[in-house]
Amino acid sequence: MAYNVNPAKGLINKGNWYRIKECMKKAKQGGRLTVGFLGGSITQGSLSSTPETCYAYLVYDWWKKKFPQAEVIFINGGIGGTTSQFGVSRVKDHVLKYEPDFVLTEFAVNDDNTEFFMETYEGLVRKILSDECKPALMLMNNVKYDDGLNAEDMHLAVAKAYDVPMVSMKHTIWPEVESGRIPNREITPDDLHPNDAGHALVAEVITTFLEQVY
Question: Rounded to an integer, what distance in angstroms lies between the CA atom of residue 95 and that of residue 56?
């Protein structure tokens, strides 16, 4: 089913695109590209019917289809119930040790919208950006579909401070749910984890930004 979501509204911090453009140049030249994802249960693929219908895999599939000449490797570091505080401690083992070229990170519905989690999120962003493999980093915020809450205010402050691109489901999918134009049960069974249709919408917001960079 097609939904009238404007994914272009998702870009809430433009950030610096240099590293992402370098990834795309490498992919165009037919190189090996590793794309990694770090987050909670949504990134892990909770409530998607198959691993291939999770938003993270759909974004990986965009890279594969956009650059068929490249060898694209998929790393999913999503673990349910984890916050950015735990993300800092596990990002090396679960994502960075694979020397990713591109990393997408999401903890907006696991973190609280407090200064404590702004600090832990900043630590995570700093750790990824400063890693020796120098990956391109993209930030993404999911949202709770019953009340529209997430940690976006605090996470966005970090995105701006480090000049990292960030997209938001609070500015794209949530307004359609809040207005009733998208019945929440069509995209999520519990107002938190997307089903296949919800994962597809999340992936569309992300890949719309990547298309813009491309």
Answer: 13
**Which residues, in sequence order, are CB contacts of 3 under 8 Å at separation 6+?**
176, 181, 182, 187, 197, 201
Distance CA 139, CA 204 (A): 14
Q: Give the DSSP letter string of the chain.
A: ------GGGGEEE----HHHHHHHHHHHTT-EEEEEEEESHHHHTTT-SSGGGSHHHHHHHHHHHH-TTSEEEEEEEE-TT--HHHHHHHHHHHTGGG--SEEEEE-TTTS-SSHHHHHHHHHHHHHHHTSTT--EEEEEE---TTT---SHHHHHHHHHHHT--EEESTTTHHHHHHTTSS-HHHH-SSSSS--HHHHHHHHHHHHHHHHHH-
pLDDT, tens digit, 9 for 90 and up, residues 32-45? 999 999 999 999 99
Q: Rounded to two decimals, what is the model's pTM?
A: 0.97
